[in-house]
Amino acid sequence: MASLKLNNVVKDFGSTRVIHGVDLDVAHGEFVVFVGPSGCGKSTLLRIIAGLEDATSGDILIDGERVNARNAAERGLAMVFQSYALYPHMSVSQNLSFGLENARMPRAEIEARVKRAAGMLQIEHLLARKPRQLSGGQRQRVAIGRAITREPKIFLFDEPLSNLDAELRVQMRLELSKLHAEIGNTMIYVTHDQVEAMTMADKIVVLRAGKVEQVGTPLELYNEPASKFVAGFIGSPRMNFVSGRVEGLSAGEAAVAIAGAATVRLRTALALQHGETVSVGVRPEHLRLGGEGDWPIEVDVVEQLGGVSYVHGHLPSGEPLVVAEPGQSPLKPGQSLRAAAGDALHLFKIDEAETRPAPH
Questions:
Q1: Which of 88, 98, 113, 321 has its Cβ near the most Cβ atoms within 10 Å?
Q2: Across-strand partners of 85?
Q3: Residue 73 CB: number of other CB atoms within 10 A?
């Protein structure tokens, strides 16, 4: 078990900066998830921690000791890759023990570690098989087992479940969470899947274009997103955003007129101007259909999932709105009704990135 600290870590590839001064503290035994869209720098940051990439500047400290000059093998970390990276000509047992044999560990200790890892991951019956004889989930267990046998200070996971089917991903998420509870090691996990982040993490680091957008517990990010980007990334289905115009300002509160709907009042600490265009956010699960709601909606599509229905519609302004209805909905496309949001509204300034052309 170990702590990790990043101080103003920067990474340049040639003239292109991909990591912009990241600061981060990871405590002993924490399960920290880096999450963000493709290309945001999360895997690059993990590789810098592992020693597979050099930081252009900044410090990486493990248990308070600067390790920038140490190579990957000297940092006491173990990494699990998306591709499993197993040796195809070796048995499962040999894959688990290979790194320990290279370190010239006594045979009795190697056998004890392999047995322990195999037992934890329930792969004892697979020890004699070759990787080609295993399913994707079994291969991933072997890759995790190989990391366990090294007894690292910190486990690093680089999108380890992305090659698995949906049902198996759910199962492996649960197993990884139980594994963390059992061994208690510090774990850093990279994913683009916010559901994985929400269900597994003690702490989530949301990355965007090589910068940390917000750090917090899953529920902190869900309940109090610091930006429109975080609000749209955390939560499934994603938060609805509709444009509004600031019509009034008072101490800690703004009155915002939503086109084709009512004027809503929101508490906010944002520095706003009268007449400014803003985004109002509301999660699909916080909207309720029927009655005298402030949001008129025309139904476009209803997705029936059995236990929940996702009603996709639009406001009179044409802006889309998704409502999560418990149970099975009788609504049909073309129906008009009203939605109520209550107090579960968020206010955001228009994101500058939305007005910039996409990079080529």
A1: 321
A2: none
A3: 11
Residues 6+ apart with CB under 8 A from 198: 204, 218, 222, 234
pTM above 0.70, yes or no: yes
Give dist(CA 72, CA 77) in Å, integer: 8
pLDDT in tens, 176-186: 999 999 999 99
Q: Interhelix angle for 166-183 vs 107-121, to 10°?
A: 130
Residue keyed to tokens 């900066």: 17
Q: Across the strands, what pairs with 246? A: 256
Q: In what order do the strands lie in the sheet with 65-66?
A: 16-26, 4-13, 57-62, 65-66
Residues 10 and 57 sit within 8 Å (Cβ to Cβ): yes
Do the beta carbons of residue 297 and residue 339 sit within 8 Å? Answer: yes
CA distance 227 to 257: 20
Distance CA 168, CA 165 (A): 5
Residue whose C-alpha is closest to residue 131's, from 94, 98, 104, 77: 94
* Residues 291, 300: Cα–Cα separation, whole Å: 19
